Amino acid sequence: MKAVLVRSLDPSRLVELTHDLPAHAVGEAAFVLRAMARRFPPGTVHLVVVDPGVGGRRAPIVIACRDGSFLVGPDNGVLYPLAAVLGIREVRRIRPRPEDSAVRVGTTFDGRDVFAPAAARLALGERAAALGPRHRPHPLRVPSAVRTADGGRGEVVHVDHFGNLITNVPSEWVPPSAEWIAVFVGRSRPRRVRKALSYEALGRGGLGVLASSFGTLELAVAEGRAERRLRVGTGTPIRLDWTAVRGR
User: Fold this and answer.
1) Neighbour tally for 209: CB within 10 Å
2) What is the pTM for the complete model shown?
3) Contact (CB, 8 A) for 232 and 156
4) 244: number of Cβ within 10 Å
5) What are the DSSP calls for 151-183, one per residue?
6) Nearest to 209 by CA among 197, 189, 222, 195
7) How far is the C-alpha of 208 from the C-alpha of 200, rounded, in Å?
8) Which of 212, 225, 236, 238 is the most buried if burial means most Cβ atoms within 10 Å?
9) pLDDT surpassing 80 at residue 215
């Protein structure tokens, strides 16, 4: 994909956001993309390839956003949450040019053969309308947490490179006075864990709840992996209670 892009674009303008998301995890990728890519400047061309349906019936699309940005990738929902934040202006189904189709090898690498050429064309100033006909995108909603009388209920939406469990429960929900939180993960018994401002404050091997860089709560083990400690992953239900827990 980079080889295709740098044939026509300045390599110094390419930013690789992540390559370590789980394969086929469309929902998790959509959450990460919405959280991270929205910080890029208006007019950015975002190229996203999390595409378990490659070569199948899902459409290759470009979403033109109201801030001048473009989202290029498969129409499986991965682009939709970010597009909803940036504002959708129009959606086009990518129709590869004959010169691109002529060099296509197989049907399993649309990132190289379809999406990268389209992204390069947009970065060079071509209008989205030139890439193909109008299209109605497949929506995908990132799951939302529910605020309860004693805390919040949601799920693990991302496991990061360090094994931290990123939830969809907003960190701003936790009152500053809370020091301990009862954590219910899946069907397991509640764990009483510390709310901390940093990994260092937990002490090596300590399990705690922190405000993540996503603006939501995360479960972390300092210098360890929370997903192994708790034996859970993306999609696991989680409930947090910070009203009934007192100190040690």
Assistant:
1) 25
2) 0.90
3) yes
4) 10
5) EEEEEEEEE-TT--EEEEEEGGGS-TT--EEEE
6) 195
7) 11
8) 238
9) yes
